[in-house]
Amino acid sequence: MITALYKFVVLPEIIREQNKIRSKARLDCISYSGAYDGLTFFVNKQNHLALYKVPAKEIVNANSKRIAEWTLTNNNLNFSSIYIEDFECPELGYGCPNKKPFIGKDKKPNPLFKYANDGYLFIINKDYTEIEVLIIVDGRNLISYYYQNLIDGNFDSELIELRKQAKPFFNYLGLNTNSKL
Predict the structure, then answer these.
(1) Alpha-carbon distance 12 to 173, whole Å?
(2) How many other C-beta atoms are found inside a 10 Å radius of the C-beta of residue 88?
(3) What angle do CA 150, 133, 170 make, to 5 degrees?
(4) Angle subtended at Cα 26 by Cα 20 and Cα 31, rounded to the nearest 5 degrees
């Protein structure tokens, strides 16, 4: 069911310094399992896959009843907003790519448009310094169902397997991806 899992973290200061990363707010992908081409637009020239957590109200133009608190962005692209509807499970959320074919004031083509039918689930720590992104290809229309399944623990065994299969996305200087950050 889950196509891929990507683990993003805010790297410790010493690791950021060793890898010449200035931003303290940047979330770097340290491991993944499976594959998803929809994230290639967020890989920089050093081959780091990185996203930034930004307040959604700064990026998203939507009805205030429908706006998420946070969105994940990079390279002037909004990967996804993070919606949390079950306040008893604030560490679990969902989202989807922007399904508009054109973005911005200059109406440039949206490179994520071809992934518009995909759905995302998020496992988040309390301060949003660790986010696991679960990709469900063609899952947009049933994302609420998948979100509820995540809350109910129905993906637990699949997540254990995906985490076991995870490999480093990039070998950051000084970072041991087998240890806890």
Answers:
(1) 12
(2) 6
(3) 145
(4) 90
